[in-house]
Amino acid sequence: MRIFVLTSLFIVFTLSAMAQNAIIRGMVSDSVEVIPFASVFIKGTTIGTTTDANGEFTLRNIPKGDYVLVASFVSYTSIQKNISVKENSDITVNFALKPNQTRLDEVVVTGTMKPISRLESPVPVEVYTPTFFKANPTPSVYEAMSNVNGVRPQVNCSVCNTGDIHINGLEGAYTMVTIDGMPIVSGLSTVYGLSGIPQSLIERVEIVKGPASTLYGSESVGGLINVITKKPNNAPLFTGDVFTTSWGEINTDIASKFNLGKKAEALVGVNYFNFNQRIDNNNDNFTDVTLQDRISVFNKWNFKRKGNRVFSLAGRYVYEDRFGGDLGWATENRGGDDIYGESIYTNRWEIFGTYQLPVKERVMFMFSANEHDQNSVYGDTWYIADQKIAFGQLTWNKEVGKRHDFLFGAAMRYTYYDDNTPATASSDIDNPSNQPSHTYLPGLFVQDEIVLDDYNKLLLGMRYDYNSLHGNIFTPRFNYKWNSKNKQNILRFSFGTGYRVANVFTEDHAALTGAREVVFLSDLKPETSFNVNINYVKKIYTRNDWFIGIDGAVFYTYFNNKIFPDYDTDPNKIIYDNLSGHAVSNGVSVNLEVVYKDLSILAGVTAMDVFSVQDGVRERQELTEQFTGTWSIGYVFPKIGLSLDYTGNLYGPMALPLLGDDDPRPEFSPWWSIQNIQITKAFGDHLELYGGVKNLLNWVPWRNLGDAGLITRTNDPFDKNVVFDTNGEVVATPNNPYAFTFDPTYVYGPNQGIRGFFGLRYTFDQ
Predict the structure, then answer these.
(1) CA atoms within 13 A on the CB side of 156
(2) What is the pTM of this model?
C-alpha cells in the first residue's frame, strides 16, 4: 500500500512538473524550400532535435527560462535566436537559413533574364562563385573555366596562344560571353576579349548549356557564360589579390568602393598581368607561352533613385601587348620576313548599364557600347581591324494573375567591322575600295513563365530577329519543370532553337597564324540548330550532416547549314562552307556535389559525340574530346585557419589536324590531365596567404612528338625553302621529309608545364 501511494505521488508530481514546462516548435527553411534533417538545439544544453521531412521540429518539456536557440545545417550559415520560455507556453520559432559560399542554390538571372531562385528556374543554370575560382587562381576568366564540367578552354594556336571556350564540344564561336547580361565579348573580341576581367569584382558566373538565342540572339547557340559583377553596396571596402609563379607570371587584382554623397556609390577595380620570360622547354627556338603585358580598369556606379529603381553604369578599358614566336624576335622585326613573330596590340573599351524607367511596371532599359581595336602581325601578315558594337534593349516584366509572368522585349544591335583583308574590300578589281561592314540586328521577343501548380511550371518563348545581311530569323523555346513537394527532386525538359552568323576573324584566325590560305566556297548562310535537353537534380540530406547533390543532363543538338572548316582537303588551305549535310552534338553530363562538415567535393563527367554527316559520310569533329572529367576537392582545418584545395581535369583523345598523309604525328591526342594543389592560410578575417603547384603531372602537348614538333618548320616559318609542285602541293625533300609547311594549329591544350605559385589576399570590410 505504501509503495502504491508513493508511486502515485511520484506520477502526480511528474505530470505536474511536465505541465509547467513549455513546447518550442517551428520550421527551418532557406526562404525557398524547407530543410529536412537540420539541427535545432538549445545552446549550452543537451536539448535538441532534427527537423522532419517537412522541415518542422518540436522541442517538448522545456523548463521556463531564457535560452539561445540555434538552427544549423551543412553548407548554411547557422542562426541563433534569443527566446524567453514561460510556464505552459507554446512558442513558434521559424528559421530562414542563408546559404554560405559553397552552396550553389541562389538567385540567378541568365536563364530567364530576370531574378529567380535557381531551384525555381525552369531553365537549368549552373552557378560558380568566387570561392570556386579561388581554389585554382588564374589571371583570366578564360583559364578559370578549365575546372567547369562540360566547359573547356581550347588553345587554337601554339604561337600566340589564342583560345576560345567550348561548351559540350561546340567551338567557341557558338558560345556567347556576356558581362552583366550585356553582349560585350563577341565577334572580333571573341579571340582576345576574354582576358582582363578583374576577378576581384566577379560576384558569380552563370552558365547555360544549350541555345539561349530566344533571349540573347545570335552566337548563343552552344551556350551562354554570363559574368556578373559585384554591386557596390555589397562589395568589400577594399580587396587586393596578388600572386606570382615560378615561371615569372605576375597577376594583380585590386578593387575598392566609395560613395559620392548620398546619391551614388561606386566600385573601381584594376587588373594587371605581366609575363615576359621567353621560355623554350621544347627546344624549337619558339616561345612555349606568349609574353603578355595587360592592364584592365573597371568602374561601376549605382545611382540611388526614388522607389529603389535601378540605375547602374559601368565601363572597362583593356590594353594588351602580346607576343609569341622566335626567341630572337625584336620589335623592329614586326611585320618583316626575317625573324618570325606574332605581335598583337589590343585596345578595347566598353560601357554598359541598366536604367529602370519611372513607371509603375518593371520596365528596364539595358544598353552597351564597345570598341575593339586590334593591330596585329602574324609573321609578315598584317591584320588591322576595328569593331564597334552598340546595343540597346527594352524589357517589360508583367505579371498577369498568379500564374502568368510575362517578359516582353525589344532589342537593337549594330555592328561595325573593318579590317585590311578582302573581307571588307570591294569586289571591283578596277576600282578597289574599302567597304566596312555595317550589320543591323533588330529583334523582338516574348516569354511567359506559367505556374501550373506547386509542382509544375512552363516557360514558353519566341524571338524574331531581322539580320540586315541574312533576313528573317525565328527562334522559339519551350521549358518544363517539375519538382517534388520538398523540392529535393527536380526534372527539367528544354527544347530550343538557335542560330549564328559567321564572323570572318573568328572563323579564319587559325590561318593568319600560319601559311594556310583561307577559302570561302560560297556566301555563308546562318547556321540553325535545335536542341533537346533533359536535366534531373537530386538533393540528399542525411541525419549526420551529409549533403549530396546530383545534377545530370542528357543533351542533343542538331545543326543545319553548319559552318564547317575543312583542314584536310588541302594542307595549304582552310576551306569554309556550309555543310550540305548535318552535324550533331549529343551526350550526357553528370555533376556530383558532396558537402560534409569541413569537406566539399564538386566533380563532374561529360561523355559526348560530336560529328558531321555529309554525302553519307560520318566524320568526327576535330579538336573535340569524347570524354571530360573535372573535380574540385576542398578541406578546411578551422582550428588552425588552414584550407587545402585539389583541382583538376581529365580529357579523352581528340582528332587533330594533320598536314597531309606524310605527317608522322599522331592523328589523335593522348589522354591528358592538368592537376593543381593549393594551401591557404588565413590570418584573422582580413589576410590570406596561399600557394601551391600548378600542373602537378608536368603535362605538355609537345612531348613524344619526335622531330616533327608541335609547330612545324620553325626553322623556316616563311616557307622560303618549301618546294611546291604545279598544283600547289608541297613536295617532300631531304630538308623537308614530311612535306610540311609552317603550321602552329596542331595544338589541343596549354603548353605550360609544372610551376609553383604564391599569393596573398587582403580584404577590408569596415
Answers:
(1) 20
(2) 0.84
